[in-house]
Amino acid sequence: MTTVAPSVSAALLSSQRRRQGQWVLGTLACSVLIATAAAVAVGPIRVDLLSLLHIGLQAIGIGDQHQIDPIVTGVVQSIRAPRAVLGLLAGASLGIAGAAMQGFFRNPLADPGLIGVSAGGALAAVAVIVLGGGALAGVALSTTLLPLAAFVGALATVALIYGLSLWDGRVIVATMLLAGVAANALAFSGIGYLTFLADDNQLRDLTFWTLGSLGGATWARVMPAALAMVVAIAGLLRLQRPLNALLMGETDARCLGVDAESTKRQAAVFTALGVGAATAVCGIVSFVGLVVPHLVRLLAGPDHRVVLPGSALLGGSLILGADLIARIAVAPAELPLGVVTAALGAPFFLWLLLRNKRHGGLG
Questions:
Q1: In terms of pTM, does the model score above 0.90?
Q2: Which long-range contacts (CB under 8 A, 24 or more apart) does 242-246 make?
Q3: Cβ(246)–Cβ(258) under 8 Å?
Q4: d(Cα 82, Cα 79) in Å, to the nearest integer?
Q5: 3-state SS string over the chain?
Q6: Strand partners of residue 171
Q7: What separation, in Å, do the N-terminal and C-terminal C-alpha atoms of the chain show?
Q8: Of 329, 348, 343, 322, residue with least CA distance to 90
Q9: How far apart are CA 89 and CA 73, in angstroms?
Q10: Predicted confidence band at 34 (pLDDT cuts at 50, 70, 90)?
Q11: Is it the case that residue 5 has pLDDT exceeding 70?
């Protein structure tokens, strides 16, 4: 009895935890559907749910083409749908990247913004606006060159900090985190200097990259970034079990057959891909990667089999909700998305600091 009872209790606890994880993921999936419907339906032109259903059926070639006002159909299919898809994928990329970074660094305060990925992308885009805008007049800056520059800037930042953290063929996690902090500060210093040099017209463009926005989303602009973000999300989801093993430490993870160095490389590359693509089309959207994984852990525990997909689902819902607030709070004007996410995330961040301080987590 003394040997069976603990295993029965552990099995019941495991079964209970698994059911809790399934319940959390199901609830978050429902929140994604609700947030997506609200993002598409709410605006200067209100669209009811039945009309949304008809428009969705029309988009896949089913249903009567004359049931919905063509103006409403055009607004939904050409403006709100690409914006909702962009918000959903960007939020999912930032959320799951934050969860991977916190598991990778084994640090509850790590997030993609902390290691300079977003700032590096924004710096490249700002440099193109300020230093190359005049010479490149007439080129489709907003649709091609700027997102490409931001994406390359994000990848270059990760390559830099990854190279700096390599020692004897192994990635030193603490060095990578500190190098990322330095790269982040350097990038924001560069953005500040370029902002000082910018003229009035350029300053308006800079606002988009430094404060974030889903405005101007079109299918042509969203699809290339969406492909990169989907690949990044799928790649990070494959790291559920290795990241669980790394929670016990690299030595124990290697004993379990986990290739720690390969896991680190994959986490860094897929994070750069997803966050770089999101920054390329949304600018800097802060705090999502930090806040979302903690909320999922509070609901379902530390298991990355729940934390990673849960962070992707909650990140998408949070960005769509924040974008909805940004659009309706000061209508007909629009708040920058980063202002809303920072207003929501900063109080949570302070609470997290105080909570960790009480538990000695930052000592």
A1: no
A2: 243/100, 243/103, 243/104, 243/267, 243/304, 243/308, 244/103, 244/303, 244/304, 244/305, 246/103, 246/104, 246/106
A3: yes
A4: 6
A5: CCCHHHHHHHHHHHHHHHHHHHHHHHHHHHHHHHHHHHHHHCCCCCCCHHHHHHHHHHHCCCCCCCCCCHHHHHHHHHHHHHHHHHHHHHHHHHHHHHHHHHHHHCCCCCCCCCCCHHHHHHHHHHHHHHHHCCCCCCCCHHHHHHHHHHHHHHHHHHHHHHHHHEECCEECHHHHHHHHHHHHHHHHHHHHHHHHHCCHHHHHHHHHHHHCCCCCCCHHHHHHHHHHHHHHHHHHHCCHHHHHHHCCCHHHHHHCCCCHHHHHHHHHHHHHHHHHHHHHHHCCCCCHHHHHHHHHHHHHCCCHHHHHHHHHHHHHHHHHHHHHHHHHCCCCCCCCHHHHHHHHHHHHHHHHHHHHHHCCCCC
A6: 166
A7: 42
A8: 322
A9: 23
A10: very high
A11: no
CB 293 within 8 A of CB 109: no
> Is the confidence at residue 1, as pLDDT, over 60?
no
Nearest-CA neighbor of 105 among 30, 48, 181? 181
**What are the structure tokens assigned to 85, written together?**
């898809």
Q: Give yes or no for residue 11 having a pLDDT over 70.
A: no
CA–CA gap between residue 177 and residue 188 (Å, rounded): 17
Which pair of tokens denotes residue 129?
């606006």
**Cβ of 151: how many Cβ atoms within 10 Å?**
25
Rg (CA), the chain: 22
pLDDT over 70 percentage in the chain: 88
Q: Which two tokens stand for residue 71?
A: 């103006």
Q: How far apart are CA 357 and CA 363, in angstroms?
A: 7
Q: CB-based contacts of 299: which residues, under 8 Å, 6+ apart?
A: 24, 310
Q: What's the CA gap between 178 and 193, in Å, rounded?
A: 23
Q: Do residues 342 and 283 make contact, with C-beta atoms less than 8 angstroms apart?
A: no
pLDDT at 300 over 50: yes
